[in-house]
Amino acid sequence: MQIKLNLLKNPQEINILGLGKDELLSIITDFESQPKKASMRVSQLWSWIYCHGISSFDKMTNIDKNLRSQLQKVLTISRPIIEKKEISNDGTTKYLFCLKDRSKIETVFIPEEKRSTLCISSQVGCTLSCSFCHTGTQKLVRNLSAQEIVGQVIAVYDDLDLWKKIKSSEGASSFFEVITNIVFMGMGEPLLNYEEVKKACNILMDNKGLDFSRRRITLSTAGIVPKIKMAHEEIGCMIAVSLHATEDKTRDVLVPINKKWNLDKLLSSLRNDVNLRNSERVTFEYVMLDGVNDTKEDAHRLVRLLQGLPSKINLIPFNTWTGSQYRRSSSDRIKAFRDIIIKSRLPSPVRKPRGEDIMAACGQLKSSSLKDKASI
Ligand code: SAH
Prior knowledge:
The structure is a single chain. By secondary structure, the chain is an alpha/beta fold. The protein is built from eleven helices and 13 strands. The strands form three sheets. A nine-stranded mixed sheet has the order 3-4-5-6-9-10-11-12-13, covered by helices on one side. A two-stranded parallel sheet has the order 1-2. The longest helix has 16 residues, at 35-50. Bound molecules: S-adenosyl-L-homocysteine. S-adenosyl-L-homocysteine (SAH) binds at residues 130, 132-134, 185, 189, 220-222, 242, 285, 287, 316, 318-319, 361-362. The site of S-adenosyl-L-homocysteine has 17 residues, from strand 10 and strand 12.
């Protein structure tokens, strides 16, 4: 973002939430010309914003009053607005956010026994048109800015009152009170919005702020092959790949980007180009679709495909949505599939469907809000 210098002579409202430190510095230099002082102010602001969740300059007590009121005149620290919030019986909480241009995105908080995960969006809608995914049916598509990506996390911290327990789970009486993991598994394809996602991750991982370790952030991709290696090297976070099929003819239909980077290209690149660190694994997501990709042969093929690649397979029971041509595999079928994988010594948890009563699958809350509007 090109920040207009000399804000005081040319006042304009700039949101500083989710800006990089360099951008923040260039803004603050307009108020504090001395470089040492300016960089001290950036550190102070950073700490107020990302360690304490402060959204008003008034409360930044270590910054002198004059400066605070100047900052207040031209800068904001604004979050995306919660348009709708639904809490499932199992505690899963789904947010529908309204952005400045009125686009809608979703974020889901998933508390579990030993951790709690925030699932965030990287785009409004998605261009990949995976045939089982509801987000693909939505027309409007644009990339989110790093501000909007970080904004989702901050807004959930506010809403769930998590700022007190930010540094670790110590002191939190349950995992309802802390976010331990962030996954880019909401709307959109993060690797098609690479620069903004990278910038957002760097802010989330900054050790003077929210301080998420790279191991606690996962980028999930449908398989944008060249960007996987880049993300692994440059961002350093964990990688999940939406595999969903063991043969090109099936994957071409389920995940059409397979026509550009097929199974062979995807898996060879993961094997040969991505330098996994010690004990690191690639997670493979595999949605269980009745009669489509859930046979024993599929399970055996999957094991063969992943041979020698440090991996973990996440079996996801399909989350049904109205109008979808697919059905969820039966639990017997999922179990038989899982048993074959386990026998091969690959770790393979079945992801427990969460928040089904609030339609927590990708893209579904947004669509229900559109329907609500259509029926008014
Ligand atoms: N574009 C990225 C991230 C978005 S979706 C990707 O494709 O990985 C996150 C995960 O949810 C993906 O594995 C996606 O395939 C899966 N998913 C989408 N719709 C689903 C549904 N209705 N039921 C179960 N999983 C779904």
